[in-house]
Amino acid sequence: MSNKKFNQGIGRQMPWELPATEVTPEAVFRDRRNIVKALGLGAIGASIPGHVQAGLFDLFGEKRESEAFVTSNLNYRSNPNFQLPGSLTPLDKVIRHNNFYEFGTGKQDPFENSQGLKVNPWMLKVEGEVERPLTLDYDDLLKLLPLEERHYRLRCVEAWSMVIPWIGFPLAALLAKAGVKSSATHVAFETLFDPEQMPGQRNRLMGGGIHYPYVEGLRLDEAMNELSFLSVGLYGKTLPPQNGAPVRLVVPWKYGFKSIKSIVKIRLLDKQPPTSWNQLAPHEYGFYANVNPKVDHPRWSQATERRIAEGGIFSAKRIPTQMFNGYGEQVAHLYRDLDLRKYY
Question: pTM for this one?
């Protein structure tokens, strides 16, 4: 089990650490009627799109117990190089405010619709341009490599953010097990396709219009970067289904939709793979999806974000978005010769 002691013996702040002033203090704001009153939504609510209203109420809504988060405890170590000072996003928000369109487009739909997802048995294949193709079962995901805890910022393209204590292992470590061939230039990822378990996959409207299975990709140098992480847990336990059980990608310098959930295939390729949101709306969602406050989404600004945390309405004020989500020291060199306005 983790010793749960963070930053002890560390005399300097690591480059990726989040200043405590950026993290919202923990408190509870339970009365959604006060939200309407405080935001002045009573008279104008009808003019706000439904999904935006839902996001507001998910953010400030009534706190509920996390009774569904009863998954297994994990054995892991806390990596002091990836700890963030200050408050983490409360567990109740992390497991109830999600984008996982396989279970619906509302922020709480994944929590409500995914609890029956069967994650054991599970098979994850690593194939393509590799020397040693791998097929990993559920136990392999938890035991093949040493598990560590990392606190990462998560920045959604919708301009909200969290700070989450992920548990898992470096993606590079898994790729090394498979032996990457010199011909490989990219890594492709694929989510489970199971319409019986994932209602958004059998109902195009419920699933946001995405062509399933959900697919994502990285350049090989991005995948091998020290920050790229495969998570099998959070808050000391295995991942709940709404957060991508049993294994998901976490690439903290990119918008959240790049961090594909419930992965069943990882393929090493010699060309750039297709990605789901880029296929659906290429003018809005590029392949790279690096967090960039200087490049707006066509329909909203990316200059600021709302940090989701427990607290009153005023504690959720917007904060400036950092280039590469604050991880520039680790990843900026990957894009030194790339026009990030063109390759967004």
Answer: 0.82
